[in-house]
Amino acid sequence: MIDSHCHLNFESLSKDISNIIKRCKKNGVTHLLSINTRPKDFESHLELIKDYNNIYISYGIHPEYIDNESKLSFLEIEKIIENPKLIAFGETGLDFYHSIKYKQKQIDIFEAHIEASKIYNLPLIIHQRNSEEEIVKVINKFKNDNLKLVFHCFTGSKKLLNYCIENQFYISLSGIITFKNANTLREIIRNVSLDHLLIETDSPYLAPVPMRGKSNEPSYVKYTGEYLAEFYSMTKDSFFELTDNNFYKLFSRAKRDN
Q: Is 102 domain-assigned?
């Protein structure tokens, strides 16, 4: 199985990465996509994972970190784009939960990520919080460009899920789906397109049941996957094969046999 979204360069994970990878192997987690959230961290992030053939990386600016000085540099992208570990842009998107101070700047940077996705043919990893209407409005400006994207850690409305289904966008489910208070989300994703479904940890956050309350790590994607296999009335093996295949369809630069 694959953890399609984790943050290995965050201190709680980076300081124990060798043991984390061992626990991934023990739990049957074969590949990881580690998400970069600040361009200035990319080189050190890459250095952290360079010796692990089964770990990939993205490049982007998380919307929470955007201010008036933020810029997605295409010059910097040109320097790194040939690196085979780089398989996606993001995470990007819009987050108006904490503040709308830099709302327009978030939109501008989001659109820049979309342009990079089009130019370099790499998929987008989208973060959405309190911004469904605005995110859809931005994406609709580019709908004729055959965008490849995933709404990570999906907690959106039924309307947003239907929008993803209609446009063959992917969604990724995290440990939130296992939480006792996630009944509404479970009802919403009951009719998801299984051919466009990924699983993730978003570690070190959102540890799934039975690990809730602990610092999350990529090996725990097993518990989210097992929960969803039962939820969708599938065998574990079939569900993990399905979500692995979906990962490689979306992140086509990733290699299966690492």
A: yes
